Amino acid sequence: MGTEPRSHAHYRRSLGTVALTAVGLGSIIGSGWLFGAERAAALAGPAALLSWVIGAVVALTIALTYTELGAMFPKGGGMVRYGQYSHGSLAGYLAAWANWIAIVSVIPGEATASIQYMSSWDFAWCEGLYDGKELTGTGLALSSVLLVFYFFLNWFAITLFAKTNTAITVFKVVVPVLTAGALMLAHFDTGNVSGQGGFAPNGWSAMFSAVAVAGIVWAFNGFQSPLNMAGEARDPGRSMPKAVIGSILIALVIYLALQVAFLMAVPAADLADGGWAGLGFDSPLADLSMAWGLNWLAMLLYADAFISPSGTGMIYAATTSRMIQGVQENGHLPGVFGKVDPKTGVPRPALLLNLVIAFIFLAVFRGWGSIAEIVGVATVISYITGPVAVTSLRRLAPGMPRPVRLGAMPVIAPIAMIFGSLVMYWARWPLTGKVILIMAVGLPVWAWYELRKPWAQLRPHLLAGAWMVAYLLVMAVVSWAGGTEFGGRGYLAEGWDIVVVAVIALLFYWWGVRSAWRNPSLLEVEREAGVASGAAPEATGEGRETASAAR
Q: Which of 186, 231, 294, 445 could form a disulfide with 11 if both were Cys (CB 3.0 to 4.6 A apart)?
């Protein structure tokens, strides 16, 4: 059966619903709440409130597709496996690569957020940590220390991680709620909404773009963490759906309260020159607290600027190591990265690899905003395989146990595909193209492992993954040709561009579902689960012969 059963036997199934919800909520509430309210307001003005709601709806819709998959396959690093099970190596690898890029880059992003807030401390040496756009050399050095700290906490045991994270999550929830309430009581100027160009001063397109590039997708992306730690869940069928959905809804309430507080607390003088777009706080919520004499709150925020991002960074250090172990078991990394320490239940080689990659991201993307943009688009690219995979596997593997099975999934899945495609388009050209290019950078790794295989064995994987390659290319072209309000050349009229993206999403959803096949990874996981083949293998182009030969 390969290495997978042995490695997963070392995982400790010790996480219950509360612990998994803490993992999800702790991932969601990181640095996004420290900076997201200001960045969203700068882009969309008061319409940022709707941006948060749209972001939550998108995350929730897509999360529903993944909860069924996560409960079906309760394995560590779950998010990097589902595309492999439904479509084979090419689509599976692209989905895993996008997901890993989106998640591993969060870790240096959280460290950057902590140091950026630290630059507002009233000490001369702190002022030299951040130059207004990116971290300085000293700031990078301190961020590196935080990265080592995150990984150090994950090195020893999952039980230490769970106990530490639950305590940190409680603090992370209390402080944002306290911040929102204190700022509303200190200053609540409704004129900030009616003035400065009204509710949507930069148009509705800015409200949509804020979802993708203001850190909102980043802020809700933590719903993946319980799924990636499914291998350590005691009762994944019951606990994971509650953890995923509950963490998103709790976070939405907190984010809306913070956005309202921020909008009403900004001093009129700061909006006099340039309106919302002219905002330029280094430590937004702490700066507002100081402006209204809430020095105690500012001190609390400075402390929480370490605790919240550090808690999230710690979680992502844990979940990305499980993802790397999953990629290795998919056959696209050396065997050493699939090893799990039998004493602690921690995949230590994968943990070390992610530390190295986090250092690289920190060196290249030195500011929270630039990392948040990359994370947002890469996350959406990784999202699109969920709706396709969940529908495909209902056809290909009807006999697999499904502790979670939503009757509305035939409607939810295509809607999730549309939402994900729209967010990618809203991210604006050329950012969309840049992140799609990053996706292409990972293909040589796939080629190293796959192109040495016989053509008869490789061909069905290529055919099954062609839809995803074509989807990324088409979305890049649509982004380039789209409306000028989204950075495009203006070849698509406003309003019609949204229709075009929705139609494209549905076409590729249909192609993706029809391309799925009973590939060796799916057959293997069925054997592990003791499930007999229960569906006629409608393999791409090859039918039963391909699936049989692939065994």
A: 231
**Is residue 52 a contact partner of residue 231, using CB atoms and an 8 Å limit?**
no
Structure tokens at 473: 């290319």
Residue among 465, 500, 460 at smallest CA distance from 480: 500
| Residue among 289, 286, 268 at smallest CA distance from 278 | 268
Peptide bond into 537 cis (omega under 30): no
The C-alpha atoms of residue 426 and residue 502 are separated, in whole angstroms, by: 12
The Cα–Cα gap between 22 and 47 comes to 30
- Evaluate whether 330 touches 315 at the Cβ level (below 8 Å): no
CA dist., res. 36 & res. 48, Å (int): 10
DSSP 394-436: HHH-TTS--S---TTHHHHHHHHHHHHHHHHHHT-TTHHHHHH
CA–CA gap between residue 326 and residue 4 (Å, rounded): 9
The rounded percent of the chain whose pLDDT value lies above 90 is 32
| The token pair that represents 204 in the structure block | 């509705």
In angstroms, rounded to a whole number, what is the distance separating the alpha carbons of residues 252 and 28?
A: 10
pLDDT in tens, 100-126: 887 788 788 888 888 888 887 777 888
How far apart (Å, rounded) are the C-alpha atoms in residues 294 and 454? 68
Task: Please report how many Cα atoms fall inside a 13 Å half-sphere around the Cα of residue 472, on the Cβ side.
Answer: 24
Percent of the chain with pLDDT over 70: 83
Q: For residue 15, which phi and psi values (nearest 5 degrees)? A: -95, 120
Residue in 393, 471, 480, 406 with CA at minimum distance from that of residue 439: 471
3-state secondary structure at position 15: strand
Q: Is 70 exceeded by the pLDDT of residue 12? A: no
Determine the straight-line distance between the first and last CA of the chain, rounded to whole angstroms. 12
